[in-house]
Amino acid sequence: MLYIIILCLFSLTNAFSYGNVAVIGATGNLGKAVVHELCKNKISTKILNRQNNSSNLINLYNEYPNIKIVNGDVNNYESIVKLLEGVDTCIAVHGSKRKTRLTDIIRRNVNDLNHPVNVNYLGMINIINAAKITKTKHIIRVTGNGEKPWSIPSIIINLFGSMHKAWNYAGECELRDSNITYTIIRPGIMHNDIDTDFSLILRDNGMFLHPTKISYSKIANLCLDCITHPNVKNSTLTAITTQPGYGTSSWIPLLKNVKSDTKEFPDKLLIILKHYIAVSIISIILVFLINVIIKNMLLLPVINRISWMIL
Predict the structure, then answer these.
(1) Full-prediction pTM beyond 0.90?
(2) 235-242 and 181-187: which strand pairing?
(3) Residue 120 has what DSSP assignment?
């Protein structure tokens, strides 16, 4: 009987040590994994609910007593303040899913609330300002490496994803300069498969690692471990998997070696400019190649006729 009481007290202490947590982006694959871990640990959690996701959220989380749903949007500052009231840690795993449109060439789309400039950048500023008002202690942000605008993955994501990488990096910069305790996590290529056969690697100070596949559940576990671990304060982490034996099976031993950021990260405006230049140059090249292909296709019948005439 005494053993059961001690076990219950330990469980309660463990849950209380996490404090109250808010999750932004709970309907995405990573968001679902994060909320699942929070529910499993019976941690008091508030979830931001966009109105067009109401039925999805209610169906997913209504049965959990530790979950409270708050209606709002990252573009709505007042709703973020309401979400973060009484919250110790905010886990922001949201991101724009907007695809690039042809109209983006001739007009600015800053008024499109789904554009990455609003979701990944201005939305992050709303979260930061709301955290200051509500005295939220810690923001954990999951992004991606945006420091390499000329890399092929960055160009492809920016080209088809409305400059997603550029504005994600801008949001990171705002968080680092906010004077709020932060942890920025840059995962590898996230997927649904359970990677039990792989070891984990974690690097701090925004160190670049070639991205490898890593499951949403592993990144969700890392988010939870970062809530209570003292070493992750003001750190930018890169998290990937590797072959068995070259890493660890848990994040805890890796977090023991993590230190706060000392690196001077590239200037926000300069990196954004480079992202746009890279995409513009590639776009011009693609348009030129398409134009050449179309011309060749149109000239092909003429060339065939001339050939027949000569023969």
Answers:
(1) no
(2) parallel
(3) I
